[in-house]
Specification:
The protein is mainly alpha-helical. The protein has a domain of 189 residues. The chain has 14 helices and two strands, in the order ααααααααααααααββ. α2 packs parallel to α4 and α4 runs parallel beside α6. The chain starts with a helix and ends with a strand.
Amino acid sequence: MKRILLLVLSVLVMAASGYSMTAKEKLNDAMGRAYKAASEKNKEAAKDWFRKGAQYAVEANSWTGLIDSGYGLSTLGLPEEAKSAFDNASKIVMQEKDWHGAVAIGYAYASLPKTLGTTDLAVQLWSNAKGWALNSGDWAGLIESGRGFLSVAKNKEAEGCFDQANSIIKDFPTEQSIKAIVNAYKAVGNEQKAMECSQYKISSSSAPPPGWVPTVGESVRSAKTVSPEVQQAQRASIDQDIAAKRQMEAQEEQLKYEEKMQKQQLAYQAYRDYLYYYSYPYYGSYSGIIGNYDDYYFCAWTTQPVWTYRTDDEIYNWGMWNCGRYNYVNGFYVEVNID
């Protein structure tokens, strides 16, 4: 009986310690252990954990996990393996038609050695991101696609993205979108457009949208054989109908406007969920603290980096910083909200 109890207990412990974990939980644990090993300068262990992370990310259908794993392998001097992880991430994003992931994987591809020929893949992904963002009326996706183009010196394509974003923002300007489009035009060197956008007024949902006019015109009725009394009664009735229709149209337009504003707000929230991925990876030591993610990512205009082997100190600093994205709880690493 004692042996049976011990066997049951061992099975329960095994289940609790890994066999019952989801693919996402395994991914988080692997990534936490990978960064921990890197912070301890144990590069071989870190490589193994990043490889496991990439496998779990495929199981979890997580493009973010594949990007993180790929960046880890690239940082540790394995760009070919990193590309394989990014390829798998790209497959997920192409199926989901997710501009957030397309922008992120574009940066991932463009961060690899040019000998791998991945810059063209990055440009294609940013083109896809642009199309998906345009279809959904998402100004943030258009600006982020443009930032990608600009990072590889495709200024014409970048400004085209910004122009399309501007066509959305001018109808529904918010504090965040005005700041973003102004910075975008400044980055591409178009100060005139930046100044024009800076004059936008923040939208309010308490009034009809800018430029709205009723479709009902003034009541005009010519008097011929109708008596003045009847004319006056008819005019009053017509004016009441016009006023009621105008009110109904105004309410309908206001509702449509508020729905579009809500859509923009939800899109912005989704945009913020992936702020960590809209830029090239940073490998070296950190000299400052990012206190405001809005200001950082709206101003983080960087050019395509030159891939190189990283020093032990760079890997150590990079591993230490990324360890902060995970907590060690009850024997496992869990991801924490970094924003």
